[in-house]
Amino acid sequence: xxxxxxxxxxxxxAFAVGALVTSSAVAGIAPAALALVIAYFFLARRTxxxxxxxxxxxxxxxxxxxxxxxxxxxxxxxxxxxxxxGKWQFLVESxxxxxxxxxxxxxxxxxxxTDFSAAKGHLLxxxxxxxxxxxILAVVLFEEKQHTEALERLEGAKSGGSDQALFxxxxxxxxxxxxxxxxxxxxLSEALEKHKNHEALTAFRDAAANDRAxxxxxxxxxxxxxxxxxxxKLPYEEQMxxxxxxxPQMNRAQRRAMKRGAQPQQQKKGGYSIPxxxx
Length: 279
Fold this sequence. Notes:
Blueprint: H1 2-22, H2 29-62, H3 70-81, H4 92-110, H5 117-123, H6 131-143, H7 147-156, H8 158-161, H9 165-177, H10 181-194, H11 199-209, H12 236-243, H13 252-260
Protein backbone atom coordinates (compact mmCIF):
# COMPACT_ATOMS: atom_id res chain seq x y z
CA UNK A 1 0.00 0.00 0.00
CA UNK A 2 2.26 2.83 1.20
CA UNK A 3 5.13 1.30 -0.77
CA UNK A 4 3.00 1.23 -3.91
CA UNK A 5 1.82 4.82 -3.45
CA UNK A 6 5.38 6.05 -2.93
CA UNK A 7 6.51 4.13 -5.99
CA UNK A 8 3.74 5.68 -8.08
CA UNK A 9 4.82 9.12 -6.86
CA UNK A 10 8.41 8.44 -7.89
CA UNK A 11 7.22 7.14 -11.26
CA UNK A 12 5.15 10.29 -11.78
CA UNK A 13 8.20 12.44 -11.06
CA ALA A 14 10.29 10.41 -13.50
CA PHE A 15 7.58 10.78 -16.14
CA ALA A 16 7.49 14.54 -15.68
CA VAL A 17 11.26 14.84 -15.96
CA GLY A 18 11.38 12.69 -19.07
CA ALA A 19 8.55 14.57 -20.72
CA LEU A 20 10.02 17.98 -19.93
CA VAL A 21 13.54 17.10 -21.10
CA THR A 22 12.37 15.66 -24.42
CA SER A 23 9.24 17.81 -24.82
CA SER A 24 7.34 14.58 -25.48
CA ALA A 25 4.90 12.80 -23.18
CA VAL A 26 5.69 9.49 -24.86
CA ALA A 27 9.36 9.80 -23.91
CA GLY A 28 8.39 9.98 -20.23
CA ILE A 29 6.72 6.55 -20.21
CA ALA A 30 9.89 4.45 -20.21
CA PRO A 31 11.65 6.20 -17.28
CA ALA A 32 8.36 6.23 -15.34
CA ALA A 33 7.89 2.48 -15.75
CA LEU A 34 11.50 1.80 -14.81
CA ALA A 35 11.28 4.05 -11.75
CA LEU A 36 8.05 2.37 -10.64
CA VAL A 37 9.55 -1.13 -10.79
CA ILE A 38 12.84 -0.23 -9.12
CA ALA A 39 11.27 1.87 -6.37
CA TYR A 40 8.64 -0.75 -5.54
CA PHE A 41 11.24 -3.53 -5.50
CA PHE A 42 13.49 -1.78 -3.00
CA LEU A 43 10.65 -0.50 -0.81
CA ALA A 44 9.01 -3.93 -0.63
CA ARG A 45 12.36 -5.52 0.10
CA ARG A 46 12.93 -3.08 2.95
CA THR A 47 9.57 -3.95 4.52
CA UNK A 48 10.12 -7.68 4.22
CA UNK A 49 13.55 -7.29 5.79
CA UNK A 50 11.89 -5.61 8.77
CA UNK A 51 9.40 -8.46 9.03
CA UNK A 52 12.22 -10.99 8.80
CA UNK A 53 14.05 -9.39 11.72
CA UNK A 54 10.89 -9.54 13.85
CA UNK A 55 10.27 -13.18 12.88
CA UNK A 56 13.84 -14.19 13.76
CA UNK A 57 13.63 -12.43 17.12
CA UNK A 58 10.32 -14.15 17.86
CA UNK A 59 11.79 -17.53 16.93
CA UNK A 60 14.62 -16.87 19.33
CA UNK A 61 12.09 -16.36 22.13
CA UNK A 62 10.35 -19.62 21.26
CA UNK A 63 13.49 -21.69 21.79
CA UNK A 64 12.65 -21.83 25.51
CA UNK A 65 8.87 -22.22 25.12
CA UNK A 66 8.75 -25.77 26.48
CA UNK A 67 10.46 -24.76 29.71
CA UNK A 68 8.99 -21.23 29.85
CA UNK A 69 5.49 -20.95 28.31
CA UNK A 70 5.58 -17.16 28.78
CA UNK A 71 8.02 -17.12 25.85
CA UNK A 72 5.00 -17.56 23.57
CA UNK A 73 3.48 -14.36 24.92
CA UNK A 74 6.72 -12.48 24.37
CA UNK A 75 6.99 -13.75 20.81
CA UNK A 76 3.36 -12.81 20.14
CA UNK A 77 3.91 -9.26 21.39
CA UNK A 78 6.88 -8.87 19.05
CA UNK A 79 4.77 -9.92 16.08
CA UNK A 80 1.80 -7.80 17.14
CA UNK A 81 4.09 -4.77 17.25
CA UNK A 82 4.96 -5.44 13.60
CA UNK A 83 1.34 -5.42 12.37
CA UNK A 84 1.53 -1.73 11.29
CA UNK A 85 3.99 -2.87 8.62
CA GLY A 86 0.96 -4.34 6.87
CA LYS A 87 0.02 -0.79 5.84
CA TRP A 88 3.25 -0.56 3.90
CA GLN A 89 3.22 -3.81 1.95
CA PHE A 90 0.56 -6.17 0.59
CA LEU A 91 0.21 -9.59 2.28
CA VAL A 92 2.42 -8.70 5.26
CA GLU A 93 -0.50 -8.28 7.64
CA SER A 94 -2.07 -11.61 6.64
CA UNK A 95 1.26 -13.39 7.10
CA UNK A 96 1.71 -11.88 10.56
CA UNK A 97 -1.82 -12.88 11.55
CA UNK A 98 -0.96 -16.40 10.45
CA UNK A 99 2.05 -16.44 12.76
CA UNK A 100 0.00 -15.04 15.64
CA UNK A 101 -2.63 -17.72 15.07
CA UNK A 102 0.00 -20.44 15.13
CA UNK A 103 1.38 -19.13 18.42
CA UNK A 104 -2.09 -18.88 19.99
CA UNK A 105 -2.81 -22.46 18.90
CA UNK A 106 0.49 -23.60 20.41
CA UNK A 107 -0.29 -21.81 23.67
CA UNK A 108 -3.76 -23.35 23.94
CA UNK A 109 -2.35 -26.84 23.39
CA UNK A 110 0.39 -26.38 25.96
CA UNK A 111 -2.30 -25.39 28.46
CA UNK A 112 -4.36 -28.42 27.32
CA UNK A 113 -7.19 -26.00 26.55
CA THR A 114 -9.94 -26.58 24.02
CA ASP A 115 -10.57 -22.86 23.61
CA PHE A 116 -8.99 -21.92 20.29
CA SER A 117 -10.93 -18.68 19.82
CA ALA A 118 -7.80 -16.49 20.00
CA ALA A 119 -6.04 -18.64 17.41
CA LYS A 120 -9.09 -18.77 15.16
CA GLY A 121 -9.46 -14.99 15.11
CA HIS A 122 -5.96 -14.60 13.69
CA LEU A 123 -6.01 -17.64 11.43
CA LEU A 124 -9.16 -16.42 9.67
CA UNK A 125 -7.11 -13.40 8.59
CA UNK A 126 -4.13 -15.43 7.38
CA UNK A 127 -3.11 -15.74 3.74
CA UNK A 128 -4.91 -18.55 1.92
CA UNK A 129 -1.59 -19.79 0.49
CA UNK A 130 -0.10 -20.06 3.99
CA UNK A 131 -0.66 -23.80 4.18
CA UNK A 132 0.46 -24.16 7.79
CA UNK A 133 -1.92 -21.50 9.11
CA UNK A 134 -4.77 -22.76 6.95
CA UNK A 135 -4.22 -26.34 8.08
CA ILE A 136 -4.23 -25.28 11.74
CA LEU A 137 -7.45 -23.36 11.07
CA ALA A 138 -8.94 -26.52 9.58
CA VAL A 139 -7.93 -28.40 12.76
CA VAL A 140 -9.67 -25.75 14.89
CA LEU A 141 -12.81 -26.03 12.77
CA PHE A 142 -12.61 -29.82 13.05
CA GLU A 143 -12.39 -29.60 16.85
CA GLU A 144 -15.47 -27.34 16.76
CA LYS A 145 -17.33 -30.10 14.84
CA GLN A 146 -17.45 -27.93 11.73
CA HIS A 147 -16.27 -30.82 9.61
CA THR A 148 -17.52 -29.62 6.24
CA GLU A 149 -15.94 -26.20 6.74
CA ALA A 150 -12.66 -27.82 7.79
CA LEU A 151 -12.45 -29.90 4.63
CA GLU A 152 -13.39 -26.89 2.50
CA ARG A 153 -10.62 -24.89 4.14
CA LEU A 154 -8.07 -27.57 3.20
CA GLU A 155 -9.40 -27.67 -0.35
CA GLY A 156 -8.84 -23.93 -0.57
CA ALA A 157 -5.30 -24.23 0.78
CA LYS A 158 -4.25 -26.90 -1.71
CA SER A 159 -2.37 -24.48 -3.96
CA GLY A 160 -0.10 -23.53 -1.06
CA GLY A 161 0.16 -26.92 0.64
CA SER A 162 0.39 -29.39 -2.23
CA ASP A 163 4.19 -29.56 -1.93
CA GLN A 164 3.87 -30.74 1.69
CA ALA A 165 3.15 -34.44 2.19
CA LEU A 166 1.99 -33.69 5.72
CA PHE A 167 -0.72 -31.37 4.36
CA UNK A 168 -2.21 -34.24 2.34
CA UNK A 169 -1.95 -36.56 5.31
CA UNK A 170 -3.90 -34.23 7.59
CA UNK A 171 -6.53 -33.70 4.88
CA UNK A 172 -6.97 -37.44 4.34
CA UNK A 173 -7.13 -38.14 8.07
CA UNK A 174 -9.83 -35.51 8.60
CA UNK A 175 -11.87 -36.88 5.71
CA UNK A 176 -11.70 -40.43 7.06
CA UNK A 177 -12.37 -39.28 10.63
CA UNK A 178 -15.63 -37.72 9.45
CA UNK A 179 -16.72 -40.87 7.61
CA UNK A 180 -15.80 -39.63 4.14
CA UNK A 181 -13.61 -42.54 3.13
CA UNK A 182 -14.12 -41.83 -0.57
CA UNK A 183 -12.75 -38.30 -0.11
CA UNK A 184 -9.78 -39.64 1.86
CA UNK A 185 -8.88 -42.08 -0.94
CA UNK A 186 -9.28 -39.37 -3.58
CA UNK A 187 -7.04 -37.01 -1.62
CA LEU A 188 -4.37 -39.67 -1.14
CA SER A 189 -4.44 -40.67 -4.81
CA GLU A 190 -3.89 -37.05 -5.79
CA ALA A 191 -1.17 -36.70 -3.15
CA LEU A 192 0.75 -39.70 -4.50
CA GLU A 193 0.61 -38.26 -7.99
CA LYS A 194 2.43 -35.25 -6.56
CA HIS A 195 4.67 -37.21 -4.17
CA LYS A 196 5.34 -40.49 -5.95
CA ASN A 197 6.36 -43.42 -3.72
CA HIS A 198 6.21 -41.31 -0.56
CA GLU A 199 6.34 -43.87 2.25
CA ALA A 200 4.02 -42.13 4.71
CA LEU A 201 1.41 -41.28 2.08
CA THR A 202 1.60 -44.82 0.68
CA ALA A 203 1.02 -46.20 4.18
CA PHE A 204 -1.98 -43.91 4.56
CA ARG A 205 -3.36 -44.96 1.15
CA ASP A 206 -2.98 -48.67 1.86
CA ALA A 207 -4.68 -48.31 5.25
CA ALA A 208 -7.55 -46.27 3.79
CA ALA A 209 -8.03 -48.73 0.93
CA ASN A 210 -8.32 -51.60 3.43
CA ASP A 211 -10.60 -49.67 5.80
CA ARG A 212 -7.99 -49.56 8.57
CA ALA A 213 -7.06 -46.71 10.88
CA UNK A 214 -4.51 -44.41 9.30
CA UNK A 215 -1.05 -44.94 10.86
CA UNK A 216 -0.39 -41.39 12.08
CA UNK A 217 2.97 -42.41 13.54
CA UNK A 218 4.47 -42.42 10.02
CA UNK A 219 4.29 -38.61 10.12
CA UNK A 220 5.80 -38.35 13.62
CA UNK A 221 6.80 -35.96 15.10
CA UNK A 222 5.45 -33.27 12.73
CA UNK A 223 1.93 -34.67 12.99
CA UNK A 224 1.62 -33.59 16.61
CA UNK A 225 1.93 -29.88 15.89
CA UNK A 226 -1.66 -30.24 14.64
CA UNK A 227 -2.92 -32.99 16.95
CA UNK A 228 -0.92 -32.98 20.21
CA UNK A 229 -3.44 -35.26 21.90
CA UNK A 230 -2.58 -37.99 19.41
CA UNK A 231 0.76 -38.38 21.17
CA UNK A 232 -1.10 -40.57 23.66
CA LYS A 233 -1.66 -43.12 20.88
CA LEU A 234 2.07 -43.76 20.59
CA PRO A 235 4.03 -46.33 22.62
CA TYR A 236 4.98 -44.95 26.01
CA GLU A 237 8.68 -44.69 25.16
CA GLU A 238 7.90 -42.59 22.09
CA GLN A 239 5.67 -40.31 24.17
CA MET A 240 8.55 -39.68 26.56
CA UNK A 241 10.91 -38.77 23.72
CA UNK A 242 8.47 -36.23 22.30
CA UNK A 243 7.75 -34.71 25.71
CA UNK A 244 11.44 -34.16 26.37
CA UNK A 245 11.99 -31.99 29.44
CA UNK A 246 8.27 -32.10 30.25
CA UNK A 247 8.23 -35.89 30.58
CA PRO A 248 7.14 -37.10 34.03
CA GLN A 249 9.81 -38.44 36.36
CA MET A 250 9.46 -42.19 36.96
CA ASN A 251 9.99 -43.82 40.32
CA ARG A 252 11.87 -47.08 40.83
CA ALA A 253 8.79 -49.26 40.36
CA GLN A 254 7.94 -47.51 37.11
CA ARG A 255 11.47 -47.96 35.79
CA ARG A 256 11.31 -51.69 36.61
CA ALA A 257 8.02 -51.89 34.77
CA MET A 258 9.62 -50.26 31.75
CA LYS A 259 12.41 -52.86 31.76
CA ARG A 260 9.77 -55.62 31.82
CA GLY A 261 8.14 -54.03 28.80
CA ALA A 262 5.05 -52.85 30.66
CA GLN A 263 3.70 -49.35 30.44
CA PRO A 264 4.18 -47.62 33.78
CA GLN A 265 1.30 -45.83 35.41
CA GLN A 266 1.32 -42.18 34.40
CA GLN A 267 0.84 -39.26 36.72
CA LYS A 268 -2.62 -37.91 37.30
CA LYS A 269 -3.99 -35.34 34.92
CA GLY A 270 -2.38 -32.00 35.57
CA GLY A 271 0.94 -33.50 36.63
CA TYR A 272 2.52 -32.48 33.36
CA SER A 273 1.52 -30.98 30.06
CA ILE A 274 1.96 -32.24 26.54
CA PRO A 275 4.32 -29.82 24.82
CA UNK A 276 3.86 -28.51 21.33
CA UNK A 277 6.54 -30.14 19.14
CA UNK A 278 8.99 -27.81 17.48
CA UNK A 279 8.58 -27.40 13.74
